[in-house]
Amino acid sequence: MTDDVLVKKKRGRKSLSKDEKRTHVVSVRVNGSELSIIDARRGKVQRGTWLRHAAFQNETIQPVPELNRQAYIELARAAANLNQLAHRANANQVVDISDLTERLSSFRLALLGAES
Fold this sequence. Notes:
This protein is mainly α. 58% of the residues lie in helices and 0% in strands.
């Protein structure tokens, strides 16, 4: 085998270039009413993200719609259930085929956005 075959691909978020990395911290003090205004305007977006966007882009950030958030939660739950079954199977534990079939069906329906 060559060394190229043994190299694993890095998973996760792509690394930022040296110029794109955020290494400086700007600390700002606000009073209670100012913080309430920021929180009311930012919705579910993190404060730092909202402030950075407001300072440099001069437009509002659209939060993820609640319907999409709920779909993600349901999909993540179904994926976690499948992962548990896969872990059991890989550990040579007994996996109930009917349970596997049911969870695969639920996962498929979650991917399609249908009710289970």
